[in-house]
């Protein structure tokens, strides 16, 4: 299969997964994508491949800004939404710093801030508030 065909096939698979995902699953996918781009950015940074580092960190910034931060509902989300907004903004600043200064420790810091959120989000079941099937009404 050609490289173009492989990319096109992967793109269709990703679009299909996104279209079929629940809002809960989409946030989990954003966290996973962010953590992946942070790892890639750090690996490229350590190898000295500044072009690929910049590409990965640009994707990480986009996920933070256009994915996670943009989708916060600060009216209905209350204080936690405001705190997440501030955290995502701080993470964006640290990723920018890491990119400009080639500072892998800043990427480690962002990873350490995001991983617990990802784990907590994964532990939340979207069906956790529904009564069990067959339960008395």
Can you walk through the features of this model?
The structure is a single chain. The protein is globular, with a radius of gyration of 18 Å. The termini are far apart. It has one domain (22-123): Flagellar protein FliS (Four Helix Bundle (Hemerythrin (Met), subunit A)). 17% of the residues are buried. The chain is built from five helices and no strands. Helices cover 78% and strands 0% of the residues. With 137 residues, it is mainly alpha-helical. Helix 2 (23-47) runs antiparallel to helix 3 (50-69).
Feature tags:
137 residues; mainly alpha; Four Helix Bundle (Hemerythrin (Met), subunit A); 5 helices
Describe the structure in brief.
With 137 residues, this protein is mainly α.
Gyration radius (Cα, Å) is 18 Å
**Low-pLDDT segments:** 1-15, 131-137
Instruction: Kindly give the count of domains.
Output: 1
H and E order: HHHHH
- What fraction strand? under 5%
Number of strands: 0
Give the count of helical stretches. 5
Helical residues, percent: over 70%
Helices and strands in order, then pairings?
Layout: H1 3-20, H2 23-47, H3 50-69, H4 78-101, H5 104-123
Helix pairs in contact: 2-3, 2-5, 3-4, 4-5
């Amino acid at each position: 299969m050609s490289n173009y065909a492989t990319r096109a096939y992967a793109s269709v698979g990703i679009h299909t997964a996104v279209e079929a995902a629940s809002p809960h699953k989409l946030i989990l996918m954003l966290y996973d994508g962010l953590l992946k781009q942070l790892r890639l950015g750090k690996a490229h940074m350590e190898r000295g491949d500044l072009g690929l580092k910049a590409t990965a960190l640009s994707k990480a910034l986009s996920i933070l800004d256009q994915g996670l931060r943009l989708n916060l509902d600060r009216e209905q989300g209350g204080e936690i939404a405001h705190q997440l907004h501030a955290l995502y903004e701080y993470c964006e600043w640290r990723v920018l710093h890491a990119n400009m200064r080639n500072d892998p420790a800043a990427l480690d810091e962002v990873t350490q801030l995001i991983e617990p959120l990802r784990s907590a989000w994964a532990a939340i079941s979207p069906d956790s508030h529904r009564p069990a099937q067959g339960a008395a009404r």
